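We store chain and fold; thus.
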Amino acid sequence: MSLAPAPVAGPGFAVIDFETTGLLPEYHHRAVEVAVVHVDPDGIVTGQWDTLINPRRDLGPQRIQGMSSKYIFGAPFFEEVASHLIEFLSGRVIIGHNASFDMRFLDADMDRLENCRRDPWASACSCCSPVGMWALVRSSRTGSTISAS
C-alpha cells in the first residue's frame, strides 16, 4: 500500500503571498505586495508573478513588511493589476502558508472592484501537515475554500 498522494488533475497550484499594511482588511488595511508562483501537479515551478501595490494609505508598521513609501509611491493600484492577478489564479488551487489571511485580503480587494467577475477560489493552507495538505488539495476540486485549522 502506497501513501503517496493521488495525482491532481488540472493545471496545478498558485502559491500566493501577500504583504499588507496590517492584519484586518475590514479595518482599511490593504495589500502592498502580492506574489504568485505557479506549480504544476508534479511540483515543478512553471511561472511566477509579483507586484507592489499602492494601498492609497500609509504603510502601517513598516518594520514588519520591510517597505518604505518610496517603493510604493509609483506602484500600480490594485484595480490596475486585478485582471492579471485573476488570470494568474484562475483554474488553480490557491495555496498559502496562512491561506485564510491571504484570501481575506484577496477577497476584500476584489469585492471593492466594480464589475469584477471571477470564479470562486479553491484554496488550501500549508500550515497543516503534508499528508493533510494533499488530502485538502484533492478535495478542493469542489471549488470551495478549505481551512486547515
Remarks:
- The chain has five helices and five strands.
- The mean pLDDT is 74.
- The helical segments are 62-65, 69-72, 78-89, 99-111, 130-139.
